Amino acid sequence: MAEDPGSLREALRQEFIGSVFGSAPAQPWRTLVVDYHAMRILSSAVTMYDVLDHGFDIVDSLEDDSRLSAPEKICLYLVSPSEVSVEMIIRDFSPGAPKYGRAEVFFTAGLPEKLLQRLAQSSAAPFVSVLKELNLEYLAPESRVFHFDSPETFRMIYSPSLSDLRDPALDELASKISFFLSSSNSAPNMIRYPPSLERVSKGVASSLSSLDMHDGGEKTVLLLVDRLSDLTAPIMHEFSYQAMAADLAGKQLQGESIRSSSSDSAEKPIVLDERDSIFAQIRHLFISEASEFIVLASKKFAQEYNVGSGSKIPEDLKEMKDFIRSISRKQELASKYSMHADLIHKLTEEFKSRDLQTISMLEQDITRGETVLGKGVKFDQVWAEVQKILKDKPDGEKRKDVLRLLALVATMDGFKEDHVDALVNPAQLWPEETAALLNFMRLAPKKAKSSVFSNLFTSKKSTAKAEVSYDLARYVPPLKNLVNDLVEGKLSERDYPRLVLSSTSPTPGARSKAAWAKKTASGEPASSPKMRKGPRYVVFVVGGVAYNEIRIVYELSSLLKTDIVIGSTHIIDPNQFVRDMRL
């Protein structure tokens, strides 16, 4: 599937191709050496085909000590501006034994003066023909999603034991946000923020004022969201295809679009990528809908391509070329349908084996404040259900699911420290887990009545045939209502004050839409329903974003016909989030 030029991901890809790779040299082939952090960024947007197309025949990891020397070749380094990476580059050009004939060095962000001087005075300096600092410290895994791949920021900001790191972490975050806005051709004229993130909002404003913003920058509203304003979305079991795959099959989904030449490729991981047209259509569907889609689409595919029947072999050269191309296309599609069908089946089996029906139904009741029959949910009832679940002494992955449920129970009115003490033995809690539950209890915001949210967005109706019931899709992440209010001009001025920036953006009549802003919510080209006139909205969740929140941004962008993208410090792993809450 060709990448739509309107996506964040495609914009980052073009930046790498234009600013880093350049045009492919005729001779010789080059070597690309990337450190771990830079590889994460690069792989989020660039494919191995892109690398080969621009004259690189070898991709190596900077950290790999077994890299072969190639003194006749040019080496392009793409690395983070760290002392470790700089020292490794210098080591590659030890006196009398340089690994490469010439070096082109690109840092993902500004290089500290001390490290610049170290490189300039080293044995590597005579070999460096290009040295460039980029502002590309964000990953763009999807058309409307970006993040900084920094899960450690959560504890740096929120842990009392790391309080001396809080302000520096917030300042660095503000700098990264402003660089993203600048590199994506966004020109914010307003920031909405909660009082807890005032430092970040002022830091972004200050940083933007010192940057050279493009005259054609897109008028933008930045919304900052504090993760502590909602602790439920990260730990809820979500049963849309993408979220369920990441949650229940995460270890299988660690593939990269670029692999080191020295990596072991014997076991090929599953990669769910929106460049896969099938995945792009079903990623946000409820798992039962995704299953039905694959079944119907596979049947249609079999009919269109006459799968299972013989094909006449053409004799004409042109017909033969078209025939081979059709066979290749058929095999590619068949492989994708097979992969998705297999993964959906595995996810459904995992759902059953871990008894997620019981756990997730209770989660839905807690967050909605009522059962599927409309009866109110009281803490004592929930507590009794938890005791029943713990009698089975869950272990392995199911124990993690139960721990997430306990964290959710800890956010309820009525949960006290005595309840944590009562859980230590039956739940076999470790001290760190006890600390996490106490923090969920202490830091959870006061709940609004369930009726406030229950009618804003329509929930799906239950179907008897679905293996995973729609009753498990009643939960609506609070972020949906927050972003909806922002776009509709109803966001509380008390809860989210506004910071109006000095005009760096053009007047509305001079707007020149950036390429990535031409993307529609579904991931389809801009020939789909047009966006209404208005600013771009960049929603940034400090402390991590959950897959259910990513999904609602696509839904709102489509529903409101408005350009909305979401970013964060990182994409949350639910089990890791519970561990991080030990603070």
Strand and helix map with partners:
Layout: H1 8-21, E1 30-34, H2 36-43, H3 48-53, E2 56-61, E3 70-79, H4 83-92, E4 93-94, E5 97-98, E6 100-107, H5 113-120, E7 128-133, E8 139-142, E9 145-147, H6 153-158, H7 163-183, E10 186-192, H8 198-210, E11 218-226, H9 241-248, H10 277-282, H11 287-304, H12 317-353, H13 356-368, H14 379-390, H15 396-410, H16 417-423, H17 431-443, H18 450-454, H19 478-487, E12 498-500, E13 536-542, H20 547-559, E14 564-568, H21 574-580
Parallel strand pairs: 1-2, 1-3, 3-6, 6-7, 9-14, 10-11, 11-13, 13-14
Antiparallel strand pairs: 4-5, 8-9, 10-12
Concise summary:
With 583 residues, the chain is an alpha/beta fold.
Structure description:
- The protein is α/β, with parallel strands linked by helices and 583 residues long.
- The chain has 21 helices and 14 strands.
- The chain has helices at 8-21, 36-43, 48-53, 83-92, 113-120, 153-158, 163-183, 198-210, 241-248, 277-282, 287-304, 317-353, 356-368, 379-390, 396-410, 417-423, 431-443, 450-454, 478-487, 547-559, 574-580, and strands spanning 30-34, 56-61, 70-79, 93-94, 97-98, 100-107, 128-133, 139-142, 145-147, 186-192, 218-226, 498-500, 536-542, 564-568.
- The strands form 3 sheets. A 7-stranded mixed β-sheet has the order 8-9-14-13-11-10-12, with helices on both faces. A 5-stranded parallel β-sheet has the order 2-1-3-6-7. A two-stranded antiparallel sheet has the order 4-5.
- The two termini are 43 Å apart.
